[in-house]
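seq:
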Amino acid sequence: MSLISPYDQHGLHAQSRLDALTQLSPAQVPDGPKFRFRAAPTPSEQPVIPPEDLFASLSGTVRPSLTESDDIPNTARCASHLELLEAFAVLKNKVINSNALDRTFGIKHERQNDPALPQRRQVKWTKFVKLAVVRFKLWFATTFSRSPLLGLPEHTGGRLDRTRLPPLDVLMVWHAFMLNPQAYEDECLSLHEDSVSGLESLWKQVHEAINASTRDYSMQNGAADLGSESNSLGDLVHADLLKFLSAFNDMHSVSWNILSEGPVEAPLGVEDIKREMQTEYYNNPDNAVEAYLIRGYSEVGGTHFSDDVTAALGRLSGFNLIDAVNRVSKFVDRMCTFLWIRSPALLSTLQRARNRYRNLFKLSELYPDRLITPTLDIDLVLRTHQLSPSGYRRYSIRTTGRLVVHDDEVGQDILNSSLREVESLYRARFCDSYLLCHCWDCEAIREAIDKASKNGIIDIEAIGKKVRLDVAYYRAVEIARRKKEMLPVRE
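struct:
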């Protein structure tokens, strides 16, 4: 691994940190290496990272082919999943740092530059996730149920449309639920589904919904806008929750009107509910938003859903979706730290991860009683696969004879012990290392060595220089993107 620094991997990382510091703050390292890349002359000449052709194979069909369903996710789906994870991170950051939501949730700014404000703001994410879970339960139970839902327009058949993506907060909870394969499968079958469906037919929509630069998730798939005067159940579920809550502190806003009037036009005792809600708002405004949403959805669920939908809402309450989202949030943080989606070796990272994923299932077959813990790259492929539940089940049973379920609630000490054991098993079986560093530099070096090996000539010095320059360029692009400057181009 030591192709740039004359020392070991630690030295390589130290050199990379110095290079990064030089690019971020040249004045702090006046004698540091000089990496100069000129800005693109026009917006159209800016680099596209990752390249759009990486996503060309995304399926836009309603049902993927049988072969694809039985096989592991391709690199395009894994890359789209990385985009989605970044979109979740962007959403969380917006929620925590939103001044409008500070007002909505009663987070007071004690003084300018209040040092305790960041900590107080964390509670907003906890509340946001709780509301997202309520919305997901309503969306899931009504979207996947065969029974028509009263209150929806006749042309819908009484169901919400499953061919369009839900808003991001609902998608975040759905994503977390699917990563618990047995619980998700049980719930889908309880709703009389012919098959257990997930994102297998929606990855193209996921990719197109996420801005390549900012990772903002757009509601371009037909979701309702808060400017709509409709207060139908479909509009309420498909509204953008962040915008909805940001406008909620204004009692004359559409948000207030939709919620206080009741999500569907039906004999709910709307005036009584509205009177109670308004009373609660004045008595306890800090907790009013949460109470309004949960009360509003609960009233809809308890009064107008068919028996199987009402039962589904009850069953979903037995699975802790809030904890599931929080566990996934840790995975999101780790993925955003490595930022593979913008790395110079993204394609080879994903290709290698897919091969290692196959090997992991081979170990799971050989050692069914062992805890076979995935590394971060393999975990990405695993979770991407679980988002196509039927395909994941078929592949798992075909390769190991059972549904492989990885428990993400296992303690860190047990995970560390398992990783060391799997390292030994993997090395003995496949003559390769299992525990690898996945930073940009190490991934780029592996890619360069693989390419050089195929050509039969490995020039260590040339590889070192190329990798260092490649990483410096991609780093320069990311720095410019975060500063909202024109992206640099390579000569």
